[in-house]
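Entry 14. Ran structure prediction on the chain below.
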Amino acid sequence: MTGLALALLLVSASTPAGRSAPPQAVVSSLEQAAANAPRIYVGIYLSDVSGFDLREGRFNADLDLWMKWSGPPEPPVLRFVNGEIESREEQERESDGDWHSIRWRVQGTFRGTFPLHSFPFDRQQLKVELALPQDSAHLLPDLGSSGMAQQFSITGWEYQPFFRAESGKEVIASDLGSIRGEGQARVLESVNFVVDLSRPRTSNVLKFMLPLAIILAMAFLVFALPATQIDARGAMGVTALLSVVAFHFAMSGSLPDVPYLVAADRFFLASYVLVLLSIVETVVVFRLGEKRLARSRQVDRACAMALSAVALLVGASVITIPLAQADAELAGKRAPAPPLAPSGPPVASARDELRVGVTSLSSPSAQGLGALTRRGLSQLDADGTLQPHLALAIPAMTDESVRLLPDGGMLVRWRLRPHLAWSDGQPLTAADLVYSLGLISDPDRTEVTLLDPVTVQIRYRRRLAGALTDFPIYPEHVARPLTADGGMDALRGRDPAQPLPNDGPYRLVSFTAEKEAVYERNPHFAGTPPAIARVRVEVVPPEVLATRISEGTLDFVPALPGSVAEQVRAAPQGRVRFALDDTLLYLHPDLAVPQLADPRVRQALLHALDREAIARAYVEGAGRAAHTFRPDDAPDFAADARQREFSVEKARLLLAEVGALPTLPLLVIDLPGSGYAHAAQLIESQLRAVGIPVEVKKVPSSKAFQAVSRGGHGGLVLHTRRDERPARFFNLPNLSAGVLDTRTERPHFPARAVGLNQQFETSLFPERRRLLSMRLQREFAEVLPVLPVAFGAQLSGYTGALQGFEGAGQSGSVWWNVERWTLAPASAPRPEPVVGPIGD
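Output, structure tokens:
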């Protein structure tokens, strides 16, 4: 807000005296303030509710209210929209760097609207409504942390001790006295914490339905008396009618005056009619006389059956219809499922086959092709935003899918979209999620519960941010026979030509290693059906890629070797797209080697590397040198982390302190002609230039991965990793099944890093995690558990006929929107290429 005030001051200073700034300048400043406003998380713990008065539309509440935010230490002023606050006492205030929290004890009276259409089977909502101007902060519910006492000081109501939250915006026809937005309507962002109350069904039936049923039964007993006993039958009918009137009057006295009929009124009115009909029937059969006693008995029996049936029907409708309406109303208030695909008209392709060229093809999922057949519960879009796919929503602290438990654990619910299917047509249900979780070892996961066919609930012993991310899923109907004896190894060892059913936009038709793979449209894909019916992938030597694109026999090269990028760009139909990503190229030292365990040696290694030159060679263009495990254009990059520059002199001085080094194995992946290979050659020559003896060993990618995962390789491994967990970059050993030992202190993982990583893994707010990531980067830059070299980029080549391709961006996969790709006819005009760092 300080920056906004300064900007407004400069605007006013540059405006001539006697003239005001143009209205559009004011509007734009408000919009800019709203865009830059911090996110404020607000939560409440409801200790007690008392004085719930339906007549007055009020209730008293005693609650704890807190706010969490990142930025300036002073919070914005929170408005209680429906509250008359009697006291608001600050209880505590905490800060950890730029992350702040404040908590108040609040007592007051809150207003509400309590409809009684369904009385006495009505459900009521107690709301605490909070709001902020949109240009001061974006208000979000901290619903996962919010809660309430197990019992309130109100009787006659039932409730589940969990809040439901409603978020919204309201445009008010006032500037609320604002100077910078004078004359402009203000937008309020609101969060409502809702407690759903319901009356006990059993007691309602006993207190309301049973007395009326007895009165009506008494009225219907007239049909058991002879028609000639008009006095007795009439007296019973009149008595029943008066009883209904008295009961109705007594119940109405407990309700506020409302201009509509409640459910009880409808039942009472029906009772009046039924009793009246019984009296009318009494008169009719009496008029039939003694000569028609047989006919009178028939009329009595028919009326007894008919009126009893009507009474039962009316009673059932009074109970079930209001409950069904309440359930429908509650379901309508829940957020609808977000669309699975970008909005817009259906797309169509002029050709049915996309021809893809790759330089190697060891498996159907190599070269990132696995994204054709797998999507999962969620996926990243081009700007790195996580979007739900099979799941209705991604669990978050701001909705009802996450609940924090008193024992320090948490519950996380995943809810699938309805009517999902695997690529073989078999249903994809929450049972597949339960089975898949059983295949993955997790010491923090204590229980998995199948709540219904589309919902699974997972209980964790700790509060972990990783619990809010998705997990691999497998089709139980096919995988269970395989894993019954061989476990996950059986799944990994399955013939690649016969993969498991999948959930992606395509499914595999045929596969020949290092030759060809063919994929066809998945008819059961949960999203928009792919516009292109078939994808044919073939192995093409790098030197002929440009020719094939020019000839029109190739449409797309997902991973274009940098050595042929200029040739593809120069081809008549060739296009090249350059997309930066967060994949880190790094040197993994074996810290069991005494010399590499010395931090001075690791510092010397980093000083010896000209990372700017290596980065340019690695990405075949404008590269990015790495200083931590996050790129310098990331929002969580720690710009103040220590940076060790390229200095042969400093490298030699440090090496002189530690003495001569033995020859170090340098394991590199065998990828001839790639940017990775060029980077490896530079690293080798630069290390040798400062006197570090290395012996290059070329290995398959699987061997390099095993060397990094298991350690004990005795030297250095040039590897890549893309991961959101900072602990993955601290060179930590695995305990089992890929679980890192993040709790043991080590020289390269000191107590500070252990504590920061613990906070990072248990922090459930992105702003807090961003700040902790920056602090972990500072620690990383000091101890150098691995040696950061460069951040990757992906070059893709394609023909101008391919439309809809947007590159990988921060999604990590070029195939993230493949279902929206189309192939234009040969005569169609070619779209202008997007200019990238290396040109097009």
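The chain is about 30% helix and 25% strand. Will compare against last week's run tomorrow.
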